[in-house]
Each structure stands twice: as C-alpha cells, then as structure tokens.
Design brief:
By secondary structure, this protein is an alpha/beta fold. The two termini are 14 Å apart. It contains 13 helices and 13 strands.
Length: 375
C-alpha cells in the first residue's frame, strides 16, 4: 500500500525556526515509515533559499525548487500544482504567508489536505502586518488544521476568531544531530578571536526591532563598563542591522560588541559562547533557546511566548520582563559573578530539553495530526 505523501512548502530566506521544523520532521519521519515526506522550496532570486535546499539534500529529504519571481507568479503556482499532481501528494504543510497563499491556489479543486504552521512571525513593518492580516483572516480559513508552536500563539489565533477545533498546539522539538549539519563549513572569519579569560554573550536571530537586540546593547553597555573581560556577539541579519550598527557606535561598544552576520556553522558558535541572551518582545518557542540549553549554555530570556515553559527563573535559566533593562543588567552581572550557580542552572536546563522537548515528541504529534486528517 502506498504511503501518504506529505509535501512541505516554504518561502525560505535562511535557516530559521520554520526551516528547523521542516528539517527535523523530514529527517525523523523518514526513519519511521508512516509517510513519504518531501520539500518544495520557493526559490528566491537573491539566493537566500539555497541554504534550506542544500541542508535538506544533505539529510536525504527530496527537494523540488520552484523559481518564484515577484509577489504573484502564476507560472510558479502552476509548477507547484503540477508537482503535487505528478507525485500524488496527499497533504501540503506550509510555513509562511507566501507559501500559504501559493499552496491554496495550487491545490484548488484537488483532493489534498492542507496544514499550516503558525511560527509567530515578526510584525515589524506595515507591509508585514498587512500580509499577516490577510494570512490569518483569509488564508487560514482554507486550511484543515493550523499548528501553533506555542500556547500563547494559540490564544492569539483564538482572539482572531479562528475556531478552536482548527488549532493544534505542537511545540518545537530539537534534533541535536542537526546542530552539526554544517560542521566543517568555513563561514567568513569572525571579527574577533576569543582569548583566554574572555566571557562572550551572544544574541542569535533575525535583526528585527521586536527581537530586542537594541535592549541587549543598552544593557550590555553597563556590563562592559564594569567587566572588561565581557564581549558580545549578535548573530543574524535583517532590516535592523544598520540601526544596530549605529547604536553600537553611539554606546561606544565598537571594540566590545560585534555584528557577525549569518553563520551556517551554528555549532561552532555554540562551542565558543558562554551565555545566550534572548531579549525579544515576542516569540513562540524559539529554536535557539532549545539549542543553547541542549548544549549546556546558560540562558537569559524574556518572559514571552512559551519561553517560561523552559526557563524557570533561577532554576533552569534567568527570566526577565521584556524591555526591563535593570533586570537584564542584574541577571547578566550574575552570569559573570555567580558562575557555580549558573552552571547548575545550565545542567538543569539541558536535562529539561532532553526530557520534554525532543524531536520525537514533535514528530509523533505531527504524524498523529496527519493521520487523523487523512483517515
């Protein structure tokens, strides 16, 4: 009997939360034998989608790139539809507002189920807010199920009048093997070399205002003045990069905090940093939190989204209110001055991720959802 074919569709601009979900599901479902899983990647002219394509190919997920030119590309929609029909796709699983709309148009009139994951997209511009409004108020109505990656996101979707029985909470799970996926890749040289005695704080994620990198910089300026051994790294790219660069100059942190761009070999970054800071104003359940905790790195994060499910303040990490610079400074100081307690927290955090946020749990819940829809 032919196994159902699940097709993930993603408009990718790098390896972020949505891409990690796809790679984790595809890699782990392949060995379980219940479904055939493939990926259709909407290929951008700027080349940023190539990271997902190459990563999927490395771990054996069948990939079909489709070139997409502009906001609405009829030929791309027809190409997606042809691939769905030719490969007998049973269910599409989309991961962003562009793949949501293209997935709906490509499956009109076909006997194909539709699932979408709401990853908790940033709303940092008017254009994005408009896209997300149409996505959540129009596109989501055409899907059989909506996966929310956090309970907070489920509550938000309910407040937008999406029926509760269409929403399913499936929190992100971590496959630690994927951290070494790009091991050996030579990224551009870092702008500094870690020396003995240095303590490195890192913020990892897209450079958007609601990710709070500016809050980290304002807080770190105080740390830098009192602890000359402390340094900072900001990993990622995005539209707020220029503003952050100017703020680093304004705060006179040019020799202490470095914008390091996107890093493909993320395991190398985790191996060199001492502390992770997540200063976001909004989140779901960020993969960078799971990854850092699984690597035994102490984490300071804001109490947003489902982060408090992992971080119990003073037990598995440090938790502060979003935008509270005084609390962030105090906890960053404690990272440097209470190292024994911080090490105990990191060990507890690592145990918690391994126990409750494994890839296996995410895969099982997702497979069960697919099975119910296809029954």
């Amino acid at each position: 009997m032919r196994k159902p074919h699940i097709l993930h569709i993603r408009d990718s601009s790098g390896i972020y939360g949505g891409e990690r979900v796809i790679l984790t599901l595809g890699k782990n479902m392949a060995g379980r034998g219940r479904f055939d899983v493939s990926l259709l990647c909407m290929r951008r002219p700027d080349g940023r989608s190539e990271a997902l394509i190459s990563s999927a190919e490395k771990i054996g997920i069948p990939v079909r790139p489709i070139d997409v030119r502009g906001r609405f590309d009829l030929m791309a929609i027809l190409g997606i539809r042809k691939y769905i029909k030719d490969t007998n796709v049973s269910l599409i699983h989309t991961h962003d507002f562009k793949s949501d709309f293209y997935g709906i148009w490509a499956t009109l009139g076909l006997d194909v189920k539709r699932v979408v994951t709401a990853h908790g997209s940033t709303r940092d511009s008017l254009g994005k807010r408009i896209y997300l409004f149409f996505d959540e108020h129009l596109a989501y109505r055409s899907f059989d199920r909506i996966i929310a990656v956090s309970e907070e996101l489920q509550s938000y979707l309910r407040s937008e009048n999406i029926p509760l029985d269409k929403i399913e909470v499936i929190q992100n799970g971590l496959d630690v093997d994927l951290l070494s996926l790009n091991h050996g890749i030579a990224d551009p040289p870092l702008p500094f070399v870690k020396r003995h005695g240095m303590k490195v704080f890192a913020v990892i994620g897209r450079l958007y205002p609601d990710k709070g990198q500016s809050e980290f910089l304002h807080s770190f300026a105080r740390i830098a003045g009192e602890h000359p051994e402390s340094y900072g790294m900001i990993i990622g790219d995005g539209p707020d990069g220029e503003n952050l660069s100017e703020l680093i100059k304004t705060l006179h942190l040019q020799e202490r905090v470095y914008l390091c761009g996107v890093r493909k070999n993320i395991k190398k970054i985790y191996d060199m940093i001492d502390f992770l800071v997540i200063p976001s104003f909004t989140e779901g359940l960020p993969y960078v939190l799971l990854e850092a905790m699984a690597c035994g790195i102490p984490v300071l994060a804001t109490a947003v989204g489902d982060i408090p499910l992992l971080i119990r303040d003073g037990v598995t990490g440090y938790l502060v209110p979003p935008g509270d610079r005084k609390a962030m400074i105090r906890r960053m100081m404690e990272f440097l001055t209470r190292q024994e307690n911080v090490s105990v927290m990191a060990r507890r955090g690592k145990d918690l991720v391994e126990e409750r946020f494994s890839a296996r749990k995410m895969v099982e819940k997702t497979e069960n959802l697919y099975s119910r829809l296809l029954a």
